[in-house]
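Technical appendix A lists one of the benchmark inputs used to test multi-chain prediction within the project. The record comprises four sequence entries:
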Amino acid sequence: MQRNSVKVSMAVVRRLPKYHRYLGELIEKDILRISSKELGKIMGLTASQIRQDLNCFGGFGQQGYGYNVVELYKEIGHILGLDKEYKCVIIGAGNLGQAITNYEGFRREGFKLMAMFDINPRLIGNTIRDIKISDISELEEYVVDNDIVIGIICVPKENSQEIADTLVKANVRAIWNFSPSDVKVPEDVVIENVAINESLYTLTYLINEDNLDI
Amino acid sequence: MQRNSVKVSMAVVRRLPKYHRYLGELIEKDILRISSKELGKIMGLTASQIRQDLNCFGGFGQQGYGYNVVELYKEIGHILGLDKEYKCVIIGAGNLGQAITNYEGFRREGFKLMAMFDINPRLIGNTIRDIKISDISELEEYVVDNDIVIGIICVPKENSQEIADTLVKANVRAIWNFSPSDVKVPEDVVIENVAINESLYTLTYLINEDNLDI
DNA sequence: TAGATTGTTAATCGATTAACAATC
DNA sequence: TAGATTGTTAATCGATTAACAATC
């Protein structure tokens, strides 16, 4: 548990990957020390918020100095669980499934893609970056036998709930769902429904905001 | 402007696409009338919040009855600007660019993909769903000549800011950026930095939450 | 009319910002 | 030591929830 066993709010949790990413960029630029003020300027947050956020997990800084970038990067990576390995499967080997296979940030950081599944006979048996595409009918058994932790759903929304149910039955710990329809899972399974079109619709809202007239 | 010219908070705006999506699902199920209470149950929100959210834009409901699903769906679609057409280009014709080309929610709703661009000579000249892939050197001129409104960035993070700068120079109104590095744009350009790996890292955080010990 | 459910105001809750003593 | 910057408490701000009169 975190300091004092206080649950960290989702608002903070959702900022952690962003801290991790910006700190990674600082390391690439050989910037090894940073104050909350400077980091805030880069990330578009207040210094106060950064200090509040980080202090949910511990006092990583040093008065008069700021934060050690490499150390903080590692700490946040640890908090996010990025120093562990996660066996994954992707369901749906179309463009999106393949895009994720190649996506940095997925290929790094201990995500171990074990297999892909599809219903399309033309894809089954093929290999993408050494990962075999199997028939979806083999999904449940494979997940059980190989202790798969994360199931990644890249199928159309019509089939996503069914796939999710199969994954839950086969005891995955978490589901990363890219179909544009929220899947429901029991409380003990972690779910992230991504719905990438939502950010596009936010974009069009903002394009038109100034001349909106209801 | 909205009712009383009060700016709607981003918290509300980011829920609008979700309302739109759930209402679309209700229509598919021939449910033509819904109360804030029922909708809240389906979406995991309180009835109160739904009524507050919708009343930022107008009184779409009717006392004693609830909301007309089709009407509300159309209203929210209008608020989101989904009843207009947006000329788009995709930069980066790899898996991710192709995945977006095929993604529902992008293909529908008035997003008109005009062209794709890449640096890979093996892709240039090819066609995806009747969309030609051109050399990235032609991007700026094309965007200017064709009044492109939205640029969609699907290139690695090393090149994303440069592409964004080109798009801004060529007067796009908005950028939808999938590279896992935030691009900066002037205030008058709308930006959505998606960073899909952030939701994955949130997932791993939640997997480990209970046994986190700093 | 009676029941249901909205629109809207008020109350509460939580998240962000400000301030400052502690300390490197 | 003096200057810088943290960790943390208090103040503020904004978002969510509750309550209820209005009304279909």
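Chain A touches chain B through 62 residues (CB under 8 Å). Chain A has two domains: 3-79, 86-198. Comparable benchmark entries are summarised in Table A2.
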